[in-house]
Design brief:
Layout: H1 2-9, H2 13-30, H3 43-59, H4 68-96, H5 102-127, H6 131-141, H7 145-157, H8 161-192, H9 194-197, E1 209-216, H10 227-230, E2 238-244, E3 247-249, E4 262-268, H11 272-279, E5 280-282, E6 302-307, H12 318-321, H13 323-327, E7 330-336, E8 339-342, E9 354-359, H14 361-371, H15 375-378, H16 383-398, H17 413-428, H18 440-463, H19 466-470, H20 473-500, H21 505-515, H22 519-528, H23 533-560
Helix pairs in contact: 2-3, 2-18, 3-18, 4-16, 4-17, 4-18, 4-23, 5-6, 5-20, 5-21, 5-23, 6-7, 6-8, 6-20, 7-8, 7-17, 7-23, 8-18, 8-20, 8-22, 16-17, 17-23, 20-21, 21-22, 21-23
């Protein structure tokens, strides 16, 4: 058995990989445990890493559990992989989040970030609390490991590796409290603000595709061609079918509108009133139900949802494909990441989009062959984009930014650079025909792998002095301040959102979970509220808040020690 002890105790790459994998495997196994419907999830990897680091230090105080260079590499690579994959995931929705509704939600979420940061700095100034400790407490209370990574990188860049370890230790102690603290804060806010909840109303996504039918009864548009109206900027809609004298037609830009024509239109909810006035009359048929058989509306036309899997289609606008002229079909909607979009001519298509095409069966089949419609092609992620993106992210993270009054340049670092590049590639990659699409399962695997590696290594590093530190009075202060940093921002913004902004509890709770980067709390909200309003709000604010927290963590550290 000498070979086994030598393999597990010698500081080699094999030993490092074995220990990190065992910690991740055990932590992820415990992540399945739930207490009253609540689980700490991947946080268990962090806790098992702390336990392993503490045991290793107690057994042999003079030797690290893993070679420090190996540990630093695995921790850094895990962080980079996690934040870049996260950027790819949230990138497509990052820009669109600032449309109507998203701007207000992001403003409230940024208030959570700002209040928490100012509270942390106020505690340091008023009570003389150690700044590195407070950075760790802030990251733990907000369950934001990328921000911790950014703060650690900044401290190491300033030549303070011991302070970086202290910050990680403070985060380790307060992280579990941050995970469950948001849930308790939401419970209290819901109970205390119950009288105001009755006054709120749910708001749908008014930019999402909505199907309606209208009757042409406005004399001003009689005998006018559709192309005269569909290209205007003040109204965005697509006419997919036209009923005239009992016959169904597939309209195009040259189709003239006659009195009594009935139109099936894809638009957004915010355009309904304008279109009703424009066409003359809207009927009460509900075309947005899931059980509608579109192919039974007529015997000549079929409606099929086609998956874009051809890389050459990636980044092209719908108008560039000329599908109406070449095949005689209409594109009515585009489904992207569970969101239905109106098929505007200027809409840029991406790999993985599902476009709804209306036309004859033969024409739709030819369109499907051109667009791909092969699921197997999407199962293989574009690894070139992933590796090139990581390289670009690291280069961007290394660029020094000189701010007046600071003695050290600010760098985005391992956390900031890759997440920015990931967001840009995810949002704008298709514009330069860069295939940024990865399946949800592939992206989730990359993020889970990276985050597990990072948390496991971070736990090993923090666990070295964990037991000695927890037994000291300073740990009690960490927990006390973590409660303040978790509860105060959530409660203040909850009051503003529900009482002042008249937001629903589901939307408010989802926004708060996104601002605090807390998917565990989001799971609780989804279990206790109806609909997907909480998830939509979470996805709307999460990208910006994650980015801002990563940047603020570095800037605050640099300014403090400048």
């Amino acid at each position: 058995m000498d070979w086994l002890s030598e393999t597990l105790l010698s500081h080699t790459a094999i030993q490092a990989v074995i220990i990190i994998c065992l910690i991740c495997a055990l932590g992820l196994s415990l992540a399945r445990l739930r207490f009253r419907g609540i689980s700490l999830g991947i946080t268990y990897v962090f806790l098992i890493g702390i336990l392993a680091g503490a045991i290793g230090h107690q057994v042999n105080p003079d030797t690290k559990l893993i070679d420090p260079n190996m540990l630093d590499y695995a921790e850094s690579f895990g962080l980079v992989l996690f934040v870049y994959a996260l950027g790819l995931q949230v990138g497509p929705g990052f820009v669109s989040a600032f449309r109507r509704g998203g701007t207000s939600l992001n403003g409230l979420a940024l208030a959570v970030v700002g209040i928490g940061t100012l509270l942390a700095l106020a505690i340091v100034w008023l009570f003389g609390f150690p700044f590195p400790d407070m950075m760790g407490v802030l990251c733990g209370a907000t369950t934001n490991t990328p921000a911790l990574g950014a703060a650690q990188q900044a401290l190491k860049q300033l030549g303070m590796p011991d302070m970086a370890s202290t910050a990680a230790l403070a985060c380790a102690v307060t992280y579990p409290l941050g995970m469950v603290g948001v849930i308790f804060a939401l419970m209290i806010s819901k109970r205390s603000l119950r009288p105001f909840l009755r006054k709120t109303h749910e708001e749908g996504n008014k930019d999402e595709a909505f199907i309606a039918s209208f009757e042409v009864s406005n004399p001003a548009i009689f005998n006018k061609k559709l192309s005269e109206f569909t290209d205007t900027d003040h109204m965005r809609f697509t006419v997919t079918r036209l009923w005239r004298q009992g016959r169904v037609m597939l309209p195009d830009g040259d189709t003239e509108l006659h009195e009594g024509d009935r139109l099936l239109v894809v638009t957004s909810q915010r355009e309904l009133k304008s279109l009703t006035l424009f066409f003359g009359k809207r009927d009460n048929t509900d075309w947005n139900k899931n059980d509608i058989d579109w192919n039974n509306l007529d015997h000549k036309l079929v409606s099929e949802r086609i998956l874009i899997t051809q890389p050459r289609i990636n980044g092209k606008r719908i108008s560039q494909l000329n599908l109406r002229r070449r095949y005689g079909v209409n594109v009515s909607r585009v489904k992207r990441s569970d969101i239905q979009l109106v098929a505007r001519p200027d809409l840029i298509l991406r790999m993985g989009d599902r476009v709804t095409v209306v036309g004859t069966a033969e024409a739709v089949k030819r369109v499907a062959n051109e667009l791909g419609n092969t699921v197997k092609l999407l199962d293989e992620p574009n690894m070139v984009t992933i590796f090139i993106g990581i390289v670009l992210g690291l280069l961007v993270g290394s660029i020094p930014f000189f701010i007046p009054g600071m003695s050290y340049p600010v760098r985005l670092g391992l956390a900031g650079g890759p997440i920015i590049v990931g967001i840009l590639v995810g949002a704008f990659g298709p514009r330069v025909h860069m295939v940024a699409y990865t399946t949800s399962s592939a992206n989730l695997m990359l993020r889970s792998l990276g985050l597990s590696m990072y948390l496991g290594c971070l736990g090993i590093d923090a666990g070295t002095n964990f037991i000695d530190t927890v037994m000291q009075p300073v740990a009690l202060y960490w927990l006390l301040y973590a409660v303040v940093l978790t509860f105060v921002p959530v409660m203040i913004v909850a009051i503003v959102a529900i009482v002042v902004k008249q937001r629903t509890f589901a939307t408010t709770a989802g926004m708060l979970c996104g601002a605090m980067a807390n998917p565990i709390a989001l799971g609780y909200v989804n279990d206790t509220t109806e609909g997907d309003h909480a998830s939509i709000a979470y996805a709307t604010v999460y990208p910006l808040c994650m980015f801002v927290r990563v940047i603020i963590a570095q800037v605050v550290v640099m300014l403090w020690f400048s």
